[in-house]
Design goal:
The complex is a heterodimer of chains A (about 400) and B (about 240). Helix content of chain A is about 55%, strand content about 25%. Chain A has about 400 residues and is an alpha+beta fold. Chain B has seven helices and eleven strands. Classes of the chains: A alpha+beta (about 400), B alpha/beta (about 240).
Amino acid sequence: MVMSLVCITLGVGLFVVTQATTTGFERFFIKTIVGTNGAIRIEDRIQETLRTMEAERGNDASGFVVEVKEGRKYIQGIQDPGLLIEAVRRFGNVAGTSEVLYGAAEIRSSFKNEAARVYGIQLEDHLQVSDLARQIVRGHLADFRQTPAGTLVGIKLAERLQLEVGDSFQLQAGGEVRRYRVSAIFETGIGEIDKDRVFVHLGEARSLLRRPTGASFIQVNVIDRDRATQDAAHMEAVLGHSASSWQERERTWLDVFRALRLSTSITVSVFTLIAGIAMYNTLALVVMEKTKDIAILRSMGYTRRDVTRIFLWQAAMVLAVGALLGCGLGAAVTYGVSLMKIRIRGIFTADHFIVAWSVWHYLSAVVISVVMVMAASLIPARRAARLEPGDVIRGTAQ
Amino acid sequence: MKTPSVMPPSLAPSADDAVLRCEGLHRSLGQGEGQVHVLRGVSFAARRGEVYAMVGPSGCGKSTLLYLLGLLDVPDRGEIWIDGQLMPRDDDAARTAARGRHLGFVFQFHFLLLEFSALENVMLPMRKLGRWSLPEMQERAHALLTSVGLGAKTHRLGNQLSGGEQQRVAIARALANQPSILLADEPTGNLDVRNSAMVFDLLTSLARQNGQAIVVVTHNPELAARCDHTLPMRDGQFAS
């Protein structure tokens, strides 16, 4: 029984901890990518290609049909962002939109040159669809807001170019070279972004990239981000532009997190499985030791179901205590883990373990242990119920 | 004390006034070549308030008959009536319910649940029957233990009692649900002479007071002689 109790406690506790940490990191990753690239991105225009061509059939002439492979053509960028934004804002779940124009450029500091991606934004709009304000690690957004030549530079890019807030640098795109100033340095935590992204004012981007009209994409923020996939599909159908939700864009990473969560659940459930086996062994032994007691209870009028219940109650009590201790252990260890220092950079930025507190982790752990332990207990309990009192008493008496 | 009668089956009580009755009971034990025909068509009836002793050599089928009468085992052939009601052979639930309502058992070994107190052991059959409330059950268990001389030891665990005391608790437990029939298999077989006499007297006097039929299997001729009826058995049948 002690072995069962320990295994149930460990099984429930560790299940909670692994779920809390994997879910914590997953949620943080989602928060980071949604806070950086938005919940939905609307970009290229979709043009349906010709599918069939049919000649009209006259009274005497024979008609004909030319069949063309069906498909769709993407026309890069957004020609009339204002009109599209107006249409997007009519969707109920939309919380904000930001017009973005981007292009490749070379960034030159006094130290070295690097390739960069220039993102032209309207700051106030972009703050509604991103966590840019929270991602500023040095300098101030106010400086960017007030300075037409101000920029926001990714932290890795700034480090490579040895740029600090207030420093000047040049951006070259095509034949155009313009000078800018570092207003602030941001860190999204996503290495790919932090190493080459530079935010400039939208007007500056139009001049630098020589694109006086249009936009590269519209970044959209939504109220319920779990509905982003359905909204994106709806927008694509209605607006005639490709729209991708954060779930589609980050499918690979999300699948990695899902697989990780599942694999840790399976691994940790081994403890619960051992608890079930231990419970089976214990109850099987108890049944062997208590055959006389079972027989005497049956002689008093206790039914087979009563006998089964007695053993299942015994298992249930151990299970209840184990599950309670396990939940306590899980909560304590989760709290302890959340205080642990760990430096993560690359897909997000974290300086300590990130945990998620959810009652579902505890419920899942308890349900798994209940199913495994009670299923394992049922076999010896039913064996006890099948004992014939006459056989037992006669055997003992002899 | 009444002079005991050796009662051949033909003198058994009629079906009308018998609280326990069986007809043509057959039972074989073992399997294959090792199978033994233990009971060969036994018929028997018992009246309320009377004590019946089944005697005979080992292996003659006394205990087997007792277990069949107590619905702890199922006969190969034959029928059993309790309080005029035919006991089904293949309905375990009905047989179990009948055991709880009508039958009390005392075995050679006390079979107390040693982790429980004397009081709790006596309350076990009552808990299942559900006829009384918890305070009523406690009161009744206490009264029964007092009647067997253990009123001061009600809270002792089973393993804190002597052999004679354990068997007296077993008697109190057998009487707990006011059964109409008390079945005892060598109830004094594990006790010394003094305790044997005391336990047997207690068993029979309490049962007589309550108007219960008692069927006792015993090897002890002195105890058998103190019963109302003696039923000698041989080779799976009552000896005529």
